[in-house]
Write a structure and sequence with these properties.
By secondary structure, the chain is α+β, with helices and mostly antiparallel strands. Helices cover about 40% and strands about 25% of the residues. It has eleven helices and 19 strands.
């Protein structure tokens, strides 16, 4: 019995030595690897059964890190050879199954996000434009105080004038642009922070053709103006300079702008004109600079200016403000000289706007929004920006109401310059802007 035990011990040692000396054996992996342990177990079973031919592969196991192969020892049928071979890992090119690198996928994802944002913004702008278009349209409820030689039918839907018939154009939307200026030194002005409407322009836009008509109403136009007490109660309506409609006893710029807009509506026979954009004259500094300047041929000599009448000049900043603001206060009808320069400036400025996109026009508005009060919402502003950017210079027409000036005295005996408008000028401009001739 002792001899048998020694013989079994020697055989086990010999078998262990053969395993250690086997080709391509990795002892460290053999100890830690589950596959190697399974191979040893299989080798033990194979040694007992002796059913495999010499050199035959008994078992081969592969994992992500290595391949373990058990082979029948060709020289000893009671032994096996265990071979462990590490798998060579291919250098990654960071490509996915479709061959696209990670970097390329990231770039495409970023581009897709950008395109998606652009599309979303475009859709949002289109919705805003469409909503603004609908909101700006207002119902016509007739015309009031028209000249005696005008025939009004169907609550203003049809007008006969000077032998022609006109139909109300329901595609037209409108708003009043007001340029306010501090003129609180006037005795009529009732607040120290009051401002007058020094420039008033009625814009009428045909939404079907995108044609824009602008009608400049002289600041001294003698028109009906609503008056209020300090407690904001309505006092009555009286004729006075349009400029003073902005300086009445109302407690906010919004109310003053609405009051000026109402006077414009009175002037145009109570057409549904309710929207306004009220801008401090000082905003011309930023606006003219933001669009790269406004080029004009100087109409008059302006004290302190760097140019003379007849010079071609690009106006920006303070030079632009001085050009549209300056007048000789004590000179009769000097307001008409300034008005001529304002018309010229507005035409050149609007021509610049026609070269901008709708988003650029909105951006320009945002740059001066601190000096602006308006009752137009975002949708309405988006639509107007779209109209100005698509109307083009050829689709813009600016006219001025004609009339004559007189000096009038108020109840206190103070003199004012009153500009009495020609009724024919007001009527024809109304028809040209809001109606379509059908004969």
């Amino acid at each position: 019995m002792p001899n048998q035990s020694n013989n079994e011990t020697d055989a086990e040692k010999q078998h262990a030595g053969e395993l250690e000396n086997a080709n391509d054996v990795n002892p460290s992996r053999q100890t830690d690897s589950t596959e190697a342990a399974d191979a040893q177990k299989h080798a033990s079973m194979s040694s007992e059964s002796n059913t495999h031919a010499p050199g035959a592969v008994i078992k081969s196991t592969t994992n992500p890190h290595e391949t373990v192969t058990v082979i029948q020892d060709p020289d000893d049928p009671d032994s096996v050879i265990i071979r462990t071979r590490k798998r060579e890992r291919k250098k990654s090119s960071k490509k996915h199954k479709n061959g696209m690198s990670t970097k390329m996928r990231v770039i495409l994802i970023v581009l897709a996000v950008i395109v998606g944002l652009i599309v979303a913004v475009g859709i949002a702008l289109a919705i805003a434009v469409n909503t603004g278009n609908m909101n700006l349209h207002q119902m016509l409820n007739g015309l009031d105080n028209t000249p005696e030689n005008v025939t009004v039918k169907d609550k203003g839907q049809t007008v006969e004038y000077n032998g022609h018939t006109y139909k109300y154009n329901e595609n037209v939307v409108s708003f009043v642009a007001i340029g306010r200026d501090d003129e609180s030194n006037y005795s009529f002005v009732t607040r120290k922070d009051a401002s007058c409407a020094d420039a008033v322009v009625l814009f009428a836009i045909d939404t079907s053709t995108k044609k824009i008509r602008a009608i400049l109403v002289p600041r001294n136009s003698w028109v009906p103006v609503d008056l209020y007490n300090a407690d904001q109660s309505y006092v009555g309506t009286r004729d006075m300079q349009l400029a003073f409609s902005h300086a009445v006893l109302l407690d906010s710029l919004e109310k003053c702008a609405a009051n000026t807009t109402k006077s414009v509506s009175y002037l145009f026979y109570n057409l549904p004109i309710t929207y306004y954009v009220d801008v401090d004259f000082k905003a011309i500094r930023q606006a003219s600079t933001a669009i790269g300047g406004v080029q004009v041929e100087a109409l008059h000599n302006i004290p302190g200016a760097s140019y003379s009448a007849g010079d071609t000049v690009i106006l920006t900043g303070d030079e632009a403000l001085r050009y549209v603001r300056y007048r000789y206060v004590d000179v009769f009808e000097s307001i008409l000289e300034r008005q001529e320069r304002q018309v010229q400036f507005v035409k050149a400025f609007t021509a610049k706007l026609s070269n901008l996109s709708a988003s650029d026009v909105l951006g320009l508005y945002n740059s001066v929004s601190g000096d602006v009060v308006t009752n137009l919402g975002v949708s309405e502003l988006a639509y107007l920006a779209y109209c100005f950017s698509t109307g083009g210079n050829s689709g813009f027409e600016l006219t001025t109401l004609s009339g004559h000036s007189e000096i009038v005295l108020d109840d206190a005996g103070e003199e004012y310059e009153a500009y009495y408008l020609d009724s024919s000028s007001v009527m024809q401009n109304t028809l040209d802007a809001f109606y379509t001739r059908v004969d």
